[in-house]
């Protein structure tokens, strides 16, 4: 039985960051399980059988255009894109952009009740509890530009470790919604 018990026949899914690495592996698996796969990425998407949409998670307008191009419905979103230190805009790639993309897809009705959102993180997200108060001040800012401004005014937050901790707390806060 294995993975066949989790078929995606008739389902349309979005893989953000599906050109390489774990995102590409996710897109390939979803194709094998029968999904109609949309891949968004900044990198060249060389995977056959998917709908390809260019995306720069550092740019709100790029995210908005990509979601508009994608349309709906979406049965699942897999947020797999990520960047390592010292990538410029790491805070946007690893958190701000993903949140904006998800919020836009939900607001447009592209993913609704019964849909799923999965995120790839890493063990770098462990220990988020130690920075909970600081992280929550960021998560309380609901918009892209405000979150970017928050990062610009808080030292030592534009790094892999902190952005993965933010993502962990974001998931903990939003998973029920």
Topology, element by element:
Blueprint (H helix, E strand, L loop, with lengths): L11 E5 L4 H12 L3 E6 L9 E4 L5 H11 L5 E4 L10 H18 L8 E4 L12 H8 L4 H9 L7 H15 L3
Helix pairs in contact: 2-3, 3-5, 3-6, 4-6
Index terms:
177 residues, alpha/beta, 5-stranded parallel beta sheet, globular
The residue-averaged pLDDT reads 94
Strand fraction equals: 5-15%
The helix count comes to 6
| Rg, Å, rounded | 16 Å
| C-alpha termini separation | 32 Å
Share of helix among residues? 40-55%
The topology string of helices and strands comes to EHEEHEHEHHH
Low-confidence stretches: none
Main sheet overview = 5 strands, parallel
Morphology call: globular
Secondary structure category:
alpha/beta
What does this 3D model show about the protein?
- The chain has 177 residues and is of the alpha/beta class.
- Helix content is 41%, strand content 13%.
- The protein is built from 6 helices and 5 strands.
- Helix 3 (90-107) links the parallel strand 4 and strand 5.
């Amino acid at each position: 039985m294995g993975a066949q018990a989790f078929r995606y026949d008739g389902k349309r899914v979005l893989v953000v960051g599906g050109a390489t690495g774990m995102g590409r592996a996710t897109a390939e698996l979803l194709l094998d399980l029968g999904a109609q796969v949309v891949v968004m990425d900044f990198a060249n998407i060389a995977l056959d059988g998917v709908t390809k949409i260019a995306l720069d998670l550092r740019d709100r307008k790029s995210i908005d255009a990509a979601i508009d191009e994608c349309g709906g419905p979406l049965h699942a979103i897999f947020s797999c894109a990520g960047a390592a230190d010292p990538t410029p805009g790491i805070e946007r790639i690893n958190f701000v952009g993903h949140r904006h993309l998800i919020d836009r897809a939900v607001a447009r009705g592209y993913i609704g009740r019964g849909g799923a959102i999965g995120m790839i993180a890493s063990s770098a997200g462990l220990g988020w509890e130690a920075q909970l108060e600081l992280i929550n001040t960021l998560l309380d800012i609901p918009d892209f530009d405000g979150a970017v401004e928050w990062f610009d005014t808080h030292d030592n937050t534009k790094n892999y470790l902190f952005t993965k901790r933010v993502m962990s707390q974001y998931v903990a806060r939003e998973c029920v919604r």
